[in-house]
Amino acid sequence: MTLKAELVFIPGPGAGHLISAVEIAKLILDRDERLCISVLIMKLPMDFGVQSYIESLSSTTRLQFVDITVDDKTAAGFLSNKETFFMDFIQCHKAKVKDFVHNTSFSRSGSKFNSQLAGFVLDMFCTSMIDVANEFSVPSYIFFTSSASFLALCFHFESLKKEHHIDTSKYKDSDEDLTILGFKNPYPAKFLPRLTTDQTVVVTRFFDLVTHFKEMKGIIVNTFTELEPFALQSLSVPQIYPFGPVVNFNEGGHGRNSQSETESIIKWLDDQPESSVVFLCFGSMGSFDTEQVKEIAIALERSDHRFLWSLRRPPPKGKMELPSNYENFQQVLPEGFIERTNGVGKVIGWAPQVTILSHPAVGGFVSHCGWNSILESLCFGIPIAAWPQYAEQQMNAFLLVKELGLGVEIRMDYFNDFEGKYGPPDIVGAKEIESGIRQLMANGDKNEIKKKAKEMKEKSSAAMKEGGSSYASLGLLIEDVINNVS
């Protein structure tokens, strides 16, 4: 029997983390037949768009999916503390992971090989699982689902907090510009993600996770050298493996539209001139209240640009749910808006984002700046107007606009925490939104970001091909994994 090296993947339970991890796993297996992967799946009590994706997955001889979800009663017990729920939920799966490894011989049914455990690949939020890997005497790698720049920012603030004992809450609402290793430009404190300036239990625990990063054998980052050379050069320990952009180009498994709805969107785009449409979409958690929706609508009318707008209904206050589709857009849009923009604009619910960004009619993207969305946009050469919402998105917006020159700003210090902990978010006025859209969609020589986005599309494609930077980086990781069992 042939011996193969087995990696155990433990992705975070959110859709963005799980989907990226599965795409990384496929990439590794496509590259080298000496490897097998088991993906252990944790499902949250609330379905954040994960279930339909999971149902679309199928195990193969070398890639298997294993449900290790704890029972509903155990999971529900953590919901009383929303602040620490996510990390407590992951922590409670440790015993399940241990049982899986302990009870698995890693011989695949019906196959002509056995595999030997070569290591764990842990989501950035699952680093506490390193204890389990150590128990089985195998190394751990991190799959960092965000940018190399955010990784540099995490290490910087972990050092400030843990080594220099600096109270970083002093930067909250500060006008100070900071020098941060990994960034070429001074970094305005007002663009810092909340988790770097809050003094809460969850923030403390997050930086405990970051401390664990240094114990890993390597960190896989979904980026590429040509996109973030400065940040990657600043990261030295542990070994960094940038082999992105890894993007899920097949949305069929986790879409929330019927086929006819998606076809209707594509048909509308087919009727628009090339690069004429601005696409507005704010991620799986993105939604606005009625007042903000009206400001966006006014801006779109005034901008005189064709638009495709993914407009979602916010979840009920205090509920951990995803936004939903409106039954009738008229209840939230300005009176007569649909009629006045008929032919030049289309309002939709959930958006098949990759399908839309890949369409030749799309010329710009108003985005929340989630890292997966940024990579998808750059893969198709689409520039971005940055309107971040939560998590590390403010930093992603700064990276995109100020460091890389691949986007324009709508409002980079906008925060929407969804729970009202910081009060309601500011209203971004129609004039500000319109200005961002006009800059984004400007034609001719003055639109440098369009040129840079097209160039980055070519670079991203080249990085993944044989001879490219990401191709080489993936090869180095695979050899390291193989050496673990040699």
Automatic annotation (TrEMBL):
Keywords: Glycosyltransferase, Transferase. Belongs to the UDP-glycosyltransferase family. The keyword Repeat does not apply. This is Glycosyltransferase. GO terms for molecular function: UDP-glucosyltransferase activity. InterPro entries: UDP-glycosyltransf_plant, UDP_glucos_trans, UDP_glycos_trans_CS. Pfam families: UDPGT. The keyword Transport does not apply. It is an enzyme of class 2 (transferase). Its EC number is 2.4.1.-.
